[in-house]
Amino acid sequence: MTFARPLRMLVPAIAVLAAALPLSASAAGAKRTITLSASGTVKAAPDMASISTGVTSEGQTAQDALSKNTDAMTKVVSTLKEAGLKAKDIQTTDFNVSPVYERKKDEQAAFITGYRVSNNVNITVRDIDKLGDVLDKVVQAGANEINSISFGIAEPEKMKDEARKLAMTNAIDNAKLYAEAAGVELGPVVKITESGDYTPRPYRAMATAAPMMAEAKQVPVEGGTMSVEAKVQVSWELR
């Protein structure tokens, strides 16, 4: 009877050991893997541009301001088409009619002195070499606002594919280096995850630059470079 207590304590210990054995066996049978992240970046000069421009006109009445704006904007659009731009590359992005207020120093209430009409369009220039000439002609035709200029690539997917290939090559090279240092060999790829970013670098011009542009023979514009980056995360089995 003196051995009953140790026997009862031994039974739970055996149960815990038996439950742990299958877990250890499962961990031992798990496949060894290596996971690495890499990126690839491809740069190229832009081959197209987008211009946000327009005309702002003022008049004593809304109709007067609208008439002035319509005449000026019609001339701008006609000039663009004469320069070779297609209708699909000229899009109205904003149209606004608003009163112009003035407040005298000795009066609290503001009163309307006239009206302002703004009409803005977005222009796509598919021949980057003609960008400076297009800007010059737009301002000469009557545009008094150049809101922004942005650059782009007509076929970005080609650059994206090159960036993907470069990212994958970098991942493979790094994986081979680590595997060799660890004394193992790379097995088959078990997973590939991709993420990426297309990053344009716009050139922005202030609206007040329009009068200065009218004096230039051709507006100097620098497009810089466009970059496409692809990022991959790759997992391999190890042998």
Structure description:
- With 239 residues, the protein is of the alpha+beta class.
- The protein has a domain of 109 residues: Protein of unknown function (DUF541), domain 2 (Alpha-Beta Plaits, 2-Layer Sandwich), CATH 3.30.70.2970.
- Helix 2 runs antiparallel to helix 3.
- The N terminus is likely disordered.
What's the number of extended β-strand segments? 7
* CATH level 4 superfamily of one domain: Protein of unknown function (DUF541), domain 2
Low-pLDDT runs of 5+ residues are: 1-28, 200-216
Largest sheet: 4 strands, antiparallel
Please list the strands of the largest sheet in the order they lie side by side: 3-4-2-5
Estimate the global geometry from the Cα principal axes. elongated
Examine the coordinates and then state which fold CATH places here, giving the name of the CATH topology of one domain.
Alpha-Beta Plaits
Concise summary:
By secondary structure, the protein is α+β, with helices and mostly antiparallel strands. It is built from 5 helices and 7 strands. This is SIMPL domain-containing protein.
Protein topology:
Elements lengths: L3 H25 L4 E12 L3 E12 L2 H21 L7 E13 L8 E15 L5 H11 L3 E8 L3 H27 L3 E14 L10 H4 L12 E13 L1
Antiparallel strand pairs: 1-7, 2-4, 2-5, 3-4, 6-7
Helix pairs in contact: 2-3
Pfam families: SIMPL
Protein name: SIMPL domain-containing protein
InterPro entries: 26kDa_periplasmic_antigen (IPR052022), SIMPL/DUF541 (IPR007497)
Properties at a glance:
239 residues, alpha+beta, Alpha-Beta Plaits, 4-stranded antiparallel β-sheet, 3-stranded antiparallel β-sheet, 37% helix, disordered N terminus
